[in-house]
Amino acid sequence: MGKHILILGGGFGGLSAAETLRKELADDHRITIVDHQPLFFMGLTKLWILNGERQVGETPGNRNLLTKRGIDFIEGEVNAIDVTSNQVTVGKQRHTYDYLIIALGADYSYSTPEGFTKNAKNLYTESGCAEIRDDLRSTKAGTITVLVCGLPFKCPPAPYEASMIIDNVLRENGSRSKVTLQIVTPELHPLGILGPEAGRRVTKLLADRGIEYHPSQKVKEIRQRCVITEEGKEIPHDLVLAIPKHIAPSVLRESGFLDETGWIPVDAGTLATRTANVFAIGDCAGTKIPKGLLLPRAGTLAEGQGRVVAQNIIRHIRGVEMSAIFDGEGVCYMETGGGMAAPVRANFFAQPNPTWEFSTPSEEGYRQKRDFLEERIRRWFG
Predict the structure, then answer these.
(1) What pTM value is reported for the model?
(2) Residues near 137 by Cβ (< 8 Å), separated by ≥ 6?
(3) How many CB atoms lie within 10 A of CB 37?
């Protein structure tokens, strides 16, 4: 008799798992993805709204098309997860599973720091980026702050990418010489988990563009004209573009999945949770690297985790040892403005420290980023 694999979340990890499962399993095994909306947008494309390379609503994948590939899709909110009865409640409907993959990502908290909703533009939503795009078009002078409100946050290069894209927009508008552009972040240095040398590579890119960098600043409050840090320091601004604090979805807390880190504890190699046949991948998983730090939140890492979990479920169904192991490797393409990007490849499970390769920003790097997007949209949705 066929098994039912239920996947909560249709992002990088969920789609990767579903694709791998469907390719290998017979049709009597049912694969279902649950997501709150049918359209899939890669987070990396939000920043393209800032400079007009992409409009709101463009370049989506449609999860309704998954049915043509033998994958069921349910649109709705996950309201409860009961591992004792192997049931998940979506809306008012209960769905039973044999294997559960939790890939619900991270939610945003707007209650902290104080003043976020009133005094900041959200750099991590499409609507927020559209507002920022319009503000940039009318900006003639002043101080723009790219603000990181808390750690961890998904896509670690994003605040630096955003600042360099904004720098390029302001130069094209002819207003850059009259605008102070700065980054305020609680990080010790950019790409902190990769170590100080990787951080120096990024800070040099910022310095070359005249972008000020203020690390180790934990924000307490966003006021209309300044940011207040926990130490009481005032950092003035005219416009704040903020990355909100990330938290696990409330249903995971209510269902008892989270540990003291605020994320789902998993085996770093297999992504198994403490409950048999339940796995967690991507942003909601508290995957730890050998040094004990949490693995960064990034789509390419979630994609790799999804494949590993799918491979182990396939093995389990076939009565074979679940021996697939996530290798901790991933790549991102950090944009530097002007149609340039720097591929950054890393192995976060390397000993004694993560290893990385930081390529020089180039047009070829940007083309690789576009190809990365288009290939996955094609593969997952046709």
Answers:
(1) 0.96
(2) 173
(3) 12
